[in-house]
Amino acid sequence: MKMNRILSFATLLIICGSLQAKNHIVTSPNGKNVATVDDGLNITVSHDGKQVVTVKASIRDGLKIASVKSKNINETIQAPFYRQKEIRIAGNQMDVKLNDGFSLQIRAYDEGVAYRFCTTNKKQTVIFDETADFCFPEDSKAWLAYSTNDEKPFAMAFQNFYDETLLSKAKDKYIFLPATIQSGGVKVTILESDLRAYPGMFMKADGLKLRAAFAKYPKTLDRYPWRGMTYVADTEDYIAKSTGARTYPWRVMAITEKDTEMPVNNLVYALATPNQIGDTSWIRPGKVAWDWWNDWNLKGVDFEAGINTRTYLYYIDFAAKNHIPYVVLDEGWYDSSKADIMNPIAAIDLQQLIDYGKKKGVNIVLWTVFNVLDEHLREACEKYTKMGIAGWKIDFLDRNDQTAVEMAERLAKTCAEYKLFVDYHGFYTPTGMNRTYPNILNYEGVFGMEEARWAKKETDMPRYDVTFPFIRMMAGSVDFTPGAMRNGTKHNWVECYQNPVSMGTRCHQLACYVMHDSPFTMLCDAPTNYEREQECVDIITSIPDTWDETRILSGYISSYMITARRNGSDWYVGGQTNWDERKVDISLDFLRPGESYQATIVTDGVNANHNAEDYRIESKTLSTNDKLNIRMASGGGFVVKLIKR
Predict the structure, then answer these.
(1) Residues 219 and 305 in one domain
(2) Which domain holds residue 350?
(3) CB contact set of 413 (below 8 Å; sequence gap of 6+)
(4) Which residues cross the membrane (predicted)?
(5) pLDDT, tens digit, for every residue of 298-353?
């Protein structure tokens, strides 16, 4: 075994470039994470003295080190609409001056290591390719999400399961970020931050390496007839171009000793460009009643349900009754076949809906397609702001080439000028743009509840539900769109497009509202379904949308997770399991000593393994000295509210 390790390390040096005699080192404040760069720009990262990854990094041929300087990083970051109110983060930075107007910055934090290239060139800089080969010292377990478009791998919705595999056995497909690899006794998760005017990073496995790949710069675009959505028809031979001095995206390696550290790793947010829109007091997070998932399927009403004014008046009444601040009008409020965003269809009296909603404390959010809004950006924002909408749900970008990334930033910036927030769907994995533009309240880029409409019996959503929070949620918030009131067990779940059913228990759904970073969260089911389940609606709407503090109490990737979040003096705990039934013990030692809390405990019912909609509620008084023992059914979950008395 020892000889095999020696051979593996020797092979790694050959693949990634042998270490030079002259090395430059930067160390995290706690001394555990060390990054060493050699004259060939090979960055070797170690944790507790064990090598975990070596990155062969280059953005242009012929770059050489001219000088090296170091500095300390110590920041307190205000983080509105994030998993915690404030981030305190410290690190050490090495500034590596290169030739040809380029430089390399490497930072070592207790949470991981990151690097990026910079340029001071005043003229146009064209990047033909960027090398980022992540080389691992031995074959390791990896969690990888592959592109779902084999023909055009860089054009898809960034939604897929994670393939848990040995790195050497990874599929010959493009991988989108984040990607997690178990190496040197820790998990290394590869992400990116501060992606601006540059293509997002994909990867491809090559033996014990993950090699970066990027979409080429679009040369020509064409348009699909339905929705007016544009796609890349032809590309240039380069990936990016820009004029003037700039920084390039951070390549992030989050390093975690325990799985419970993963969902609360803050490097992506902390490394992004700070707030560029100024005042954020006008931005209101909140829950939203959604139409598309439930197919506008109302029961027992005296009008024809569908995309029409009467239906949305009903949604508004439901939202107002339950103190839900938003209703979204999804696809269909304008003629998608003509991409006619400036004119609602005749069946929708949009001004009536907006005015009616405002009288009841409910604001309207409008769905559209990225390029359709972009083509009418100021005209549409001007018109619909005057009418009184609160924001946009923007869909079907399905790309992350440079022009797509620029479009996403342009939309966020312009919408902020009109005091409109945005919810990005059909969008690439977050890269911290919500720090730069805090009016970006949420992102999709997750295999969410919409998949239940066309999933198959063998689809394992409960497993995914306790996998993505450890990986995908490191990158940013998730618009998972939970809240199903029709729930199925592993054995009796059925596919139904018009009356969709979630996989797992009712409590599994309720727990999403605690477990997900999601300041703008859907209630995906129909108002008439919720009206028969008022107790569950009351639980959902009583859970806050923003948090002062988040902790992961216990969990293992792909098995289960238990999250505790604080809002003011109150705590909320949520848990989910995969298809394995399990019992968990929860210490309440995070509660303030000497205080008592009124607890509402919502758990899977005794018969939830047979009837996924079965749940029970109990109330009791608890304190920091108490412990909870909770059973989660197969595909189950729970919610505990702890309100300070």
Answers:
(1) no
(2) 286-445
(3) 276, 277, 437
(4) none
(5) 999 999 999 999 999 999 999 999 999 999 999 999 999 999 999 999 999 999 99
